[in-house]
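Handout, page 2. Input:
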Amino acid sequence: MEVKTIASFECGIIEKEYQLVGQSITANFPKGFPDAAIKVQMDFERRMDEIANSKSKQVLFSPYMSNGIFATYFASLEVDELNEIPDGMMGLELPLMKYAKICCSNRTIDQGYSKLFAWMGENGYKQNQFNDSCPIEIFYLENGAKEEVVEILIPIH
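Output:
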């Protein structure tokens, strides 16, 4: 009998833009992670009901930026418009971008990154590291689940 896993590791390309509202944390990188990411996500989950115009409270978007010394990591929801931003949160508008994408889980995220970067190399894609883009982790939340679906998006050119 075959055991099914939620980490399919299927790679592909999508083109998407995002409007997000959420909170962020900045910490030493890599020493402060994943603890800093977990902290901001848990803090944000307690406040996500404050975002009135979210598309779904079951999909957590975590764009991030890192320079190898420190990283800023977000916990946010996708919104229809950036017109209602609760105190202590910020709105992010990520422009239309082409992303390499992989589906994994919160337990296999390290494997997901390794497989996605290998796939990108095999297919001639390079990460876009310019100011108009950033990687995104998308978590599909399930109450009480120990393992959840995660998509990793890496901007490419």
